[in-house]
Amino acid sequence: AVACRVGRAVSVPARRGAVAGGEYSDAGGDTDKAEIYDPVANTWTSIGNPGWGQVGDAAATLLADGRLLVGYLSDGRTAIYDPVANTWTAMASAPLDIGDTGSASLPDGRILDSTRFGNQIQIYDPTTNAWSMGQSMPLRIGDENAWASLQNGGILAVGFNGDGAAIYNPATKT
């Protein structure tokens, strides 16, 4: 069974859910564990880890093709989990730290990610396996935040602890 923890959860194809990493948990602090939940069977299945310890509460985002992008808690390392092949693959490292960040999918399939403790944006392109820097947000969202893809193609980023909120417009890249 999955241990109770604070981590990143996303939905994956076939109406399943995935949880990667976690901290402040009964698993014993930061963890590198990842599991898939099957609501039909009401079971959790381990999917291993991305190849490092301390996934913690780093970003995890579902790619358009159903794979899962997961970041490392303490630096820019990333890996992708392929649920069809049941494998993890190391990917390009982000230019800046990913830990404790939010991320969301853009309409074109790229991933928008905020940097830890700042207002900088980095963008991952899964077709080229490359990261680039985006324009900075107008305010600091903070290290604990939530992101959501909006129907109009924008991304809503909401900070906790009174950090504020911002909307990213992919058409204007602002």
Oligomeric state of the chains in view: single chain
Largest sheet: 4 strands, antiparallel
Distance between the termini: 42 Å
What is the count of β-strands?
A: 15
Report the sheet-strand fraction: 35-45%
Percentage of residues assigned to helices: under 10%
The helix/strand order is EEEEEEEEEEEEEEE
Poorly predicted tracts of residues: 1-9
- Output the strand order for the largest sheet: 1-2-3-4
Structural class: mainly beta
Residue-averaged pLDDT, rounded?
75
Radius of gyration over alpha carbons? Answer: 15 Å
Structure description:
The protein is mainly beta and 174 residues long. The chain is 0% helix and 41% strand. The chain has a four-stranded antiparallel β-sheet with strand order 1-2-3-4, with no helix packed on it. It has a four-stranded antiparallel β-sheet with strand order 5-6-7-8, with no helix packed on it. Strands 9-10-11-12 form a four-stranded antiparallel β-sheet, with no helix packed on it. The chain is globular, with a radius of gyration of 15 Å. Residues 1-9 have low confidence and may be disordered.
